[in-house]
Write a structure and sequence with these properties.
- The complex is a heterodimer of chains A (about 325) and B (about 290).
- With about 325 residues, chain A is mostly helical.
- Chain A has 13 helices and 2 strands.
- Chain A has a two-stranded antiparallel sheet with strand order 1-2.
- In chain A, helix 2 crosses helix 11 and helix 3 crosses helix 9.
- Chain B has one domain: ABC transporter involved in vitamin B12 uptake, BtuC, CATH 1.10.3470.
- The chains are: A mainly alpha (about 325), B mainly alpha (about 290).
- Chains A and B meet through helix 5, helix 10 and helix 12 of A and helix 4, helix 9 and helix 11 of B.
Chain lengths: ~325, ~290
Amino acid sequence: MTTLTDDTLPVTPRAMRDEMIVFVLMALLLAAVPFTGVYPFFVMQALCFALLACAFNLLIGYGGLLSFGHAMFLGTAGYCSAHALKVWALPPELGILVGIAAAFVLSIITGYISIRRQGIYFSMITLALSQLLYFIYLQAPFTHGEDGIQGIPQGHMFGVFDLSKPTVLYYVVLAGFLAGFLLIFRIINSPFGEVLKAIRENEPRAISLGYRTDQYKFLAFVLSGTLAGFAGSLKVFVAQNASLTDVHWTMSGEVVLMTLVGGLGTIFGPVVGAFVIIAMQQYLAGFGQWVTVIQGAIFVVCVLTFRRGVIGEIAHYFRRSL
Amino acid sequence: MQALYAQLLVGLINGSFYALLSLGLAVIFGMLNIINFAHGALYMMGAFVAYFLLNLGGINYWWALLLAPIIVGIFGMILERTMLQWLTGLDHLYGLLLTFGIALIVQGVFQNYFGSSGLPYAIPDQLKGGMNLGFMFLPVYRGWVVVFSLVVCLATWFLIEKTQLGAYLRAATENPTLVRAFGINVPRMITLTYGLGVGLAALAGVLSAPINQVRPLMGADLIIVVFAVVVIGGMGSIMGSIITGFALGVIEGLTKYFYPEASNTVVFVLMVLVLLVKPTGLTGRAA
C-alpha cells in the first residue's frame, strides 16, 4: 500500500549511535555559527523553519499523513505569542508557553476533525481548515489584519537573557530548536514511534494486531501541531512580527517542500531541507515571482526523480538510517 | 429583497464554477487516482487563453469558449504524458505534490508577466444588458453562465453515465487491468480523461473572465474552496459533485446576504460540520 520509504531499517543500537553522532556534530556546527561571521538572522530563521519541518515530518514521515495546513499552527502560535508579549506584556518564556498552548488546543480540534478521513482527503481537509483560520485571522481585530502584529518587544528570557542581543537570541533559539529536535527524535524511537511506522506501512495489519490506529494518528497529529506551534513562537522573537503570510497556504506548501527536499521520513532531512529552501529564498529574493516558479520546479523534480531527498539518498547509499 | 436575489444569483454563478471544477477533479481522481492541485492554475489559464485570443488574435468570446478548453486540455494532456503518468503505482500524495508544483510554476510565470492585478475582459455584445424579471433585474451574461454551466455539467454526466465511452471509462476506473485485457487502450483513455477534466476547468475560466476579470491568482484561492466542496460531496458520484457544487454556491450566496462576515468561511465551516456528522461525505464511499 503506502510505500514512502522503500527501505525501512529497524532501530538498532548501531543506528541509534550513528544518529546521535550526527546530532552532536549538527549541534556543534550550529553552536559555532556566531563565531563564523555567518548572518545569524538567516540561521535563526532557518532553525525555526527546520523545527517546523521536523514537526511536519513526524506526521508525514512516520505517520504517513500529509498535512497541507501546518501553517495554521505556525501562525496561530505566532499570533498568540505576539499578542501575549505585546498586549499582555508577558515575559518571553510565558509568551512562548501561550503560543504552544494555543497550538495544542488548535491541534486537538483540527486533529479530531481531520483524522476522520484518510489519504488524500486528509490533505484536503487540513488545507481547508488552515484556509478557514486564514480568513478568521484576516477579520479578527487582535491580528490587525493585513498589517499584522508589529514591533514585538523581545524582553529578557527568565529575567536573565537579553533577547535584544543577537548572540543571546541566537543561542536561545538554538536551544529551543535542539530541545524540540531531541523530543521528536525521542518520539520516533519510542514504542509509540514504532507503532506509527507500522500504521504507515500497513494500517489494516496494525488494526488486526489490536492497535487503535486512530488514537495513534490523533496523538501524532497533536504532537506535530504543538511542536509546529513551538516553532511559530520562536519565530516571533526572530522576526519581531506576526503576519498573515505565516498562516497562508503558501507557507504550508513551503514546509512540505523543505521536508521533501531533505527527505520524507528521515530524521535530519527536514533540517537540511529548511536550510536549502531558506538560503534559496535569501539569494533569489531579487527575482520576484521567479522564486515561486523555482520552488514549483523543485517540487516537480523531487517528485519525479528524487523522492528520497538529500538525506534519504545519503542514508540509502550508506545503508544507514539518518 | 432585490439584494437577496442578487446574492442568490452570485451564489449560483460561484456554484457553477464549483460544480465544473469539482466535476473535473472527480473525473480525474477516478481515472488517475490523483487530486489535481493544478486545477485552479489551469482554470486561470483558460481565462488567460480567452484574453490572449481576443487581444492578440481578435478571436471572439464564442470561439474562445470552444478553443480555450481545447488548448488548455492539450496542455494538460502533455503534462499527463510527460509527468503524471510516471506516478502510477506510487502513493496518492506524490500526485498532489507534483500537481502542486505545476500550479506554483504556472501561477508564478503568469504573475511575473501580469502582476497580481486584474485584466478586463468585455462581455460579448450578444449577452450585454439585462432583463427585468419583475422580482429582480437579471444581467443576461450572468444568467447565461448559470444555464450554460448546468448544460455542460449535465452533458458530462450523460457522457460518463450513459454512453459507450463512459462505460469504458467507468470500467477502467474499477479495474484497469481487466479493461486492457479486452483490448481497450487504457493509458490513452487516462490521458483523454485528464484532458477532459482540465478542459472543464478552462471552460469555467473562460466563463468567469468577464465577471471576475482575468488574474494570475484567480484560481489559487478558488481551488481550496473546491477541495472543501469535494470533501463535502465526496468524489464517488458525478451527479453528487454537480449538486453539491451548485448547492454550496447558493448557501454561500445566502450567507453573503444574511451574515456577510462569514461568506468567506461558510463552505469550510460546512465541511467541518459534515465531517463531524457523516465523515464519509454526503455522497461518498469510504476513502
